[in-house]
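Exam revision sheet. Question 4 asks you to relate a sequence to its structure. Input first:
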Amino acid sequence: MSEPRVSAFCLNYTVDPKEGSIAGGTWITIWFNDSSLYSSVLQYFGQGCPLEVNMTNSESPPIYCDVLPLYSPSSSIKCKTRSAGQEGAYKVSIFHGGQQITKAEKVIFKFSLLETPVICDVSPSSGVPGGVIKISGKLMTDHFENYDFDIDYIEGPVIMKSERDGWSSLCSLADKISDSIYPIHVERGNGTLQCRTEGNYIGSQNLTFSVFNKGRSIVNKDSWHISAKQELFLYQTHSEILSVSPESGGRGGGTDITIIGDFFQYPTKVIAAGTSCKIKSVSPRAIICTTTPGGQTHNPPYPGNRGLWFELWDGVADLDITDKPLLLHGLMVPDASSPDIRLKPGRPFSARLQGFFVCPETNNYTFWIQADSKAKLFLSSSEKAELKFEIASIPHGIPTWTDHWELDWDDRWKQKSLKIELLRGKKYYIEMLQYGTGPKPSMKVGVQIHNTWLNPEVVNTYQREKHQIVAKSSRLPEIQRMTFSGEGLVQFCWDGVASKPIHLNSTAKQIQLVIEDMLSVHCVTDLPLGDIFYSYGFEEDEMNEPGTNGVKAGWTEPFCGMFSMFKPRYILKASDSLEKLELNKYSHVCFAYKGYLRDYLLVSITYNATKESLNTVRKNYTCSWEFHERDPER
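Answer key, structure tokens:
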């Protein structure tokens, strides 16, 4: 039997909805306007002749919409979009056997961020399987599994997936204890939902949920966590230790240890007192192992816990915490940050986070601190706390990670440490101290890993490394020593220009004047020197400083002499060392100008009307310039 041909049908159609999530997962209904032709298409579809829905954009690769292989009597077919990864408008076309069966006019579906659900936070970020977590973000609806297709609702459970091995599990919105749905709170599109993790998977996982008529969710780049394997995740499941028996044993080894807990898996590795414990048996709720010789005795704290140990002292906010009464006797906190504790405003306190940093790989690391008050960070070269040394500090509270990274940097602000090379698998003792007053003892430790695949396109916490370069230089005069012997004259030469002859027995001052004359541009004037009140040297005052309130410029060739003045305030200013200038005798002022000019020059003159008068007269003049050159720079 030959395959039926449907290329001649040229169906008219529309799509609904016309917009959806950039992550895909949007169910699109394609409505056909000609029901008789549509019935023929469905007949071929039912006989195993597949239909394909293709979505094309001139600037992006094509995207397929997976057709639901079910007969629909309402002149329509349904398909689910795949991920586009970004916003864009796509033309929707239908194919049968590689031939387009829809008319050529454009039917557009838009992948839109506005129609995309977003996960902004998962709390807590870690736990044992079976725990309840809260998801915050742009949920867009507070309905769940509704049969009214005209409204938006959350479809099914939240999907948890490991990117490393592809393992998927569910996070159920059904509360089995109360036999109801966990509460969903939404206001203006944003809100929270709760779900209970299922299965027994241990590791880092991402989360996604779908909203009917919208599609699958995406993750806000600020929400990602980074695992020791440099994996991005939202939630991490781990095993749980409930008890260890016995609590002590000989350093020679041979002690059988029973570890009771939950969600243990094989293979597993146990470290006891710094040495390996040989596994005898492993079950989901118990591990039995035998200690080996060489165990070491350490003072607390001990490595192996998840998070850091937080303590809070009452009293004066200073470095000495040994004699202060404890407000909080200790709490293991995740994410290297203090718990949410409120104190009376103005109440002094001291707080400490301590624990161990285990390097996931040999690499360069930078440690950051953030706190509401003065704080310091210490790191040890090993597990021993007594070898700690200060690596970062802030003089008072700071609201973000990078407030003093680029601007206003000085020795007091060391919010980040220097780049430190650490070794894979080695444990390093770390401690942060904070001193301040209530109401909130908040502090955090951040770790920056260098040489990573991550970039700003993946996570917003990525910081490009920047260096502050301070360059200093000293301008020293060049000193050349020459020794002449005999009698006669000598000349100096520079760049093809020769100086005036000078006697060998001349003084240093005479030689300097000859060299300066050689390096200067000689002035040309038609006036006899007797008719000139003042010339040369006007650029400097008695203290060899600029006498015009300008800047002495040697970077451009002057009209004459060695220097010119850049942006002078005045040309000539009389002083006690100068003879009084009589304007009726010296009636002209001559100067050279280099730069861009208009067709006129504004001149201001301030003088005394008579020799005996103390009244100052100020007059402003507008002088016209006449230039024949076309070049405006003159």
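Marking note for examiners. The CA atoms of residues 366 and 448 lie 5 Å apart.
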